[in-house]
């Protein structure tokens, strides 16, 4: 076996699978069917608690920004167009100003959603 060099990145054992997609997440995605929902959330969401109420009971932690996570997931799992809305996102309540960093994330998120929800 040869080791990857600087010019040859380590691709892992699976070809064309984004390394963001950890094994537990790949299992969850493979187990999903029509009408199932997946929540991609930030650290302020009680994901561990909510995960206990799902069929998989798994809480997956991805250490990347939301738009790349969405793109990686959509690279292996098509959005379900049997439902009227394929993707939704949270926004601040009326009268609350979003932090400038949040505005940038929201713009990138909307672009990623638009890319996968034509």
**Shape assignment:** globular
Computed structural class: mainly alpha
Helical content class: 25-40%
Q: Strand-and-helix sequence, N→C?
A: HHHH
Describe this protein's structure.
By secondary structure, the chain is mostly helical. The chain has 4 helices and no strands. The model has no long low-confidence stretch (mean pLDDT about 85).
Keywords:
118 residues; globular
Would you spell out the secondary-structure blueprint of this structure?
Layout: H1 23-31, H2 47-51, H3 66-76, H4 100-116
Helix pairs in contact: 3-4
Gist?
The protein has helices at residues 23-31, 47-51, 66-76, 100-116. By secondary structure, the chain is mainly α.
């Amino acid at each position: 076996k040869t080791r990857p060099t600087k010019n040859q990145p380590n691709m892992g054992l699976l070809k064309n699978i984004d390394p963001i997609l950890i094994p537990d997440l790949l299992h969850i995605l493979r187990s999903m069917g029509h009408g199932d929902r997946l929540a991609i959330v930030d650290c302020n969401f009680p994901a561990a608690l909510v995960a206990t109420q799902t069929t998989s009971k798994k809480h997956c932690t991805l250490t990347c920004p939301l738009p790349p996570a969405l793109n990686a997931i959509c690279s292996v799992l098509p959005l379900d167009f049997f439902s009227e809305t394929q993707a939704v996102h949270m926004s601040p309540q009326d009268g609350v100003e979003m932090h400038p960093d949040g505005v940038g994330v929201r713009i990138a998120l909307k672009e990623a959603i638009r890319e996968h929800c034509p």
